[in-house]
Amino acid sequence: MRRFALAGTWLALNLFLAVAYAERDETESVAGAADAEKSLRAVLHEYRDYFYNHYKAEVARHKKGEVRNGVAMQILPIFEKMGKEPLDAGDYRLAFSDVLYSSRVGLFSENLMLSGFVDDDPSLRVLVSALKSEEEHTVKRAVEWLTWHVRHSARRQFEKEIRAALGKRPRYEAILLYAKCDLTEEERNEALSWSDTPAAARAYMGDTKAETELIEKFERSNDYWEKSRLALQLGYVGTPRCVEALVDGLRSTVASKGGGISVRREIVRAIGLVYENEPLFTRYAYYKRVHYDDTFDKKVRKLDDYIGAIDRWVQDKFGRSAWGEEDVWFSRLRLQH
Fold first, then answer.
1. How far is it between the farthest Cα atoms of the chain?
2. CB neighbour list of residue 198: distance below 8 Å, 6 or more residues apart
3. In which residue ranges of the chain is pLDDT below 70?
4. Is 149 in contact with 116 (CB distance < 8 Å)?
5. Angle 304-306-307 (CA atoms, 0-180°, nearest 5)?
6. What is the DSSP letter of 255?
7. DSSP 8-class letter at 280
8. Is the model's pTM score more than 0.85?
């Protein structure tokens, strides 16, 4: 039996990008506008100019074969292509995805500090512009990222544009994003009356029955994938009752088939949807998603220290220990010889 370690922090960041790129999928449209695709493409070209200005020295070193910034250089090929030849729709989809994933791993943050969120203004402008795309895949992707991968404070800066793109009656996938807008009581009541409003959106808008059902499903579930999905929904809702359920869930022994990933890994990420500025549940939670425990311990932060820090945080906020009597772990790979 042996453990495989991922090599180095930069490799982990690049692996995060590679894994994330593989998640792209074909999806349904939720919004559209007659000439919006041209607008998104224009914004992407503006982003390209911003990138070259920001990373001028890095690009020059890269061209000399001196690669020092793997994260920044991941996005360079599509930008070089944008400057030399016409791009087709697939190229722009690639550029759009590259912008989002690069932002989430800290492309424009100080010291390339991964936050787990799309944080920088240029990337947010690309993301919001994508809501008006004629491409179904692009719109769905924008809705997903604005809902799950953008801090509430950042999202509010673009609320006017978001609401204009979604319209007064968004489809099922976009209702979660719509519910996060600053709705009037009349708008909330109307959204609650729609038959396709997801349970998490209902709970966020004040439906206590939907909130209770989500919590009870989460507490009962012994299936890793279901419990992980429900954890994120509770994080989306973010009420005190939902947070309490998530904190209690840190003691869960539920794991993926084969026992390689504990549901704790997803629960700490879900708590980060509520405490968006707490690194334990944002930055480090995302590092945990690209590192097995032993590599996280060696390359990012001592695992015992991280576990202890979460316990102290829970003790401070909730007056109890985060962990039960079981050994605490998040993800591990064990291969039989």
1. 63
2. 172, 175, 176
3. 1-38, 62-73, 106-113, 334-337
4. yes
5. 65
6. B
7. G
8. no
User: Tokens at residue 89, please?
Assistant: 């729709």
Helix axes 283-290, 9-21, angle to 10 degrees: 80
The amino acid at 226: E
Please choose, from the candidates 109, 110, 147, 112, the residue with its C-alpha nearest in 3D space to the C-alpha of residue 128.
147
User: Where do the H-state alpha helices sit in 64-120?
Assistant: 70-74, 76-84, 89-104
Alpha helix locations (H) across 105-184? Answer: 121-130, 136-148, 152-156, 159-166, 172-179
3-state helix, strand, coil in the chain (%, to 5): 65, 0, 35
* Measured distance CA(224)–CA(266) in Å, rounded: 10
Question: Between the CA of residue 55 and those of 50, 62, 70, 239, what are the distances in Å?
Answer: 8, 10, 12, 41
List pLDDT tens digits, range 65-88: 665 555 556 777 788 888 777 778
Q: Cβ distance 246 to 234 under 8 Å?
A: yes
Other beta carbons less than 10 A from residue 214's beta carbon? 23
Residue 53 is predicted with a pLDDT of: 85
The rounded distance, in Å, linking the Cα atoms of 9 and 16 is 10
Token code pair at residue 42: 């224009």
Residue 47 sits at φ, ψ, to 5 deg, of -65, -40
Query: In whole angstroms, what is the distance from residue 212 CA to residue 306 CA?
Result: 31
DSSP string, 177-219: HHHTS---HHHHHHHHH-TT--HHHHHHTT-HHHHHHHHHHHH
User: Domains of the chain: which residue ranges?
Assistant: 9-197, 209-318
Q: Which residues contact 103 (CB under 8 A, 6 or more apart)?
A: 118, 119, 120, 123
Burial class (CB in 10 A: 0-12, 13-18, 19+), 217: middle
- Whole-angstrom Cα distance, residue 284 to residue 270? 12
CA–centroid distance for 308 within its chain? 25
